[in-house]
Design goal:
single chain; BirA Bifunctional Protein, domain 2; 2 domains; eight-stranded mixed beta sheet; five-stranded mixed beta sheet; 15 helices; 22% strand; elongated
Length: 413
């Protein structure tokens, strides 16, 4: 027994990486809260049919990637593969639309997909996302894109761009779906097996196929933006106007459809220069609230793959920790009180209470790469003094207890 290992496709987030995650999450939360977004927490487990209905029965997520199971009462359940459907379900169930005209939510948490593990992609991965419900004006799309632009800049990521398109309203989408269906019907025998199924159930999903042969055929089909009605064209023009006004770096990708059924009108993905995989994506989904049993409410949002952005962030993550060395029982009692005084001033202190020589304690502090140590022995207890040692320079000085907080704050600047 023993020698347990993590399940394939799962991963541990250990220090010091967990410190980076904490700082990234802090920046994400603070940025979206400036726009009036508030946190929503939804369950990890939902009814399987919620995702079949929202994401689409023929999507890769539903067909191949969902973790599903039957509980003791025979209910068909699933671990959530994405966040939007759960947020919309909670919004409808709590009848939030009766309490406010515009709702702004953000979420952070694990998502589960039985996908092929690879760099930045795990079977349990984390997403941060926002959902804006109740806003139909194209500037709501623009604001969502601008928030995402700000988030990446606040994280120190600069070499990114948006890939943007419009699928049009429900009428435009249905009309374009028939165009795609008719086009590929003539090429059916040359499609991959997945796209043959998509042709019957959800033709637009063919445009998202990664098969090289299918990608070649896609090049000759007309794009969604070429088939927009006047209203949808005007909507998309306004979104473009917003992005230009705020100097958002973007490219029009006329074949972008996204892999989920619920999208309408504006859709977008975010890429790093010269990298093939999107690090964030989103768009408008004006029909989803109604399709899940709520009123006719427009909505838009995005989600960020946290594992994909962590290697890219350039934010300060090192919280300085003071290493406490207390030699003897009296020093331990006095030192513990000193450590508590420092913590109340938001100064991190770690203490090793084991009996060791000063030399051994200092070796441990050096191995932990601690820059500062506070050292207390019997003499320091008597004098009410603390030795503050700089591990990088080797210099140390005795400081009166009443001056310690101000001295350490000065050193930590």
């Amino acid at each position: 027994m023993g020698n347990f290992k993590k399940v394939r496709g799962m991963h541990d987030i250990l220090p010091p990486e967990s410190e980076i995650w904490k700082n990234v999450e802090k920046i994400l939360r603070e940025t979206v809260e400036l726009y009036g977004f508030k946190e929503i927490k939804t369950p990890v487990v939902e009814e399987k049919s919620l995702f079949e209905r929202s994401v689409g029965e023929t999507s890769d997520i539903v067909l191949k990637e969902m973790y599903t199971f039957t509980d003791k009462k025979g209910r068909f359940l699933a671990l959530r593969p994405e966040g939007t459907a759960s947020v919309v379900r909670a919004y409808i169930e709590a009848q939030i639309y009766n309490k406010e005209r515009i709702s702004r939510f953000y979420y952070f948490g694990p998502m589960f997909r039985y996908d092929r593990p690879q760099k930045g992609r795990y079977r349990q991965s984390y997403q941060f996302g926002i959902e804006l419900l109740g806003g139909a004006h194209p500037f709501f799309d623009g604001e969502v894109i601008k928030i995402l632009d700000n988030l990446f800049k606040n994280l120190g990521i600069n070499n990114f761009y948006f890939s943007v398109n419009s699928l049009g309203c429900n009428t435009c989408k249905k009309k374009y779906t028939e165009i795609v269906r008719n086009y590929f019907e003539k090429l059916k025998e040359d499609l991959c097996e997945d796209c043959k199924i998509r042709l019957e159930k959800s033709p637009l999903r063919i445009l998202d196929c990664k098969n090289e042969k299918c990608k070649e055929m896609i090049k000759n089909v007309s794009s969604p933006v070429e088939n927009l009605c006047d209203e949808c064209k005007a909507h998309f023009d306004k979104v473009n106007e917003y992005m230009k006004e705020f100097e958002i770096r973007y490219l029009l990708n006329p074949m972008l459809v996204r892999g989920l059924d619920y999208y309408t009108k504006t859709v977008f993905e975010v890429f790093i220069d010269n990298e093939p995989n999107a690090i964030a994506a989103g768009g408008r989904y004006d029909n989803l609230v109604k399709e899940l049993g709520g009123p006719d409410i427009p909505a838009t949002g995005f989600a960020i793959g946290i594992e994909r952005i962590i290697p890219l962030v350039k934010v300060k993550t090192d919280r300085i920790i003071i290493h406490g060395i207390f030699l003897g029982e009296k020093a331990k009692i006095y030192g513990t009180k000193i450590a508590d005084i420092l913590r109340k001033e938001n100064i991190s202190v770690e203490v090793d209470y084991e009996e060791r020589s000063l030399k051994s304690h200092l070796k441990i502090a050096d191995r932990l790469k601690r820059k500062w140590c506070i050292i207390i022995g019997d003499i320091e207890v008597e004098k009410k003094e603390i030795i503050l040692k700089n591990m990088e320079t080797g210099k140390q000085e005795s400081i009166k207890e009443e001056n310690l907080v101000s001295k350490i704050k000065e050193c930590l600047k």
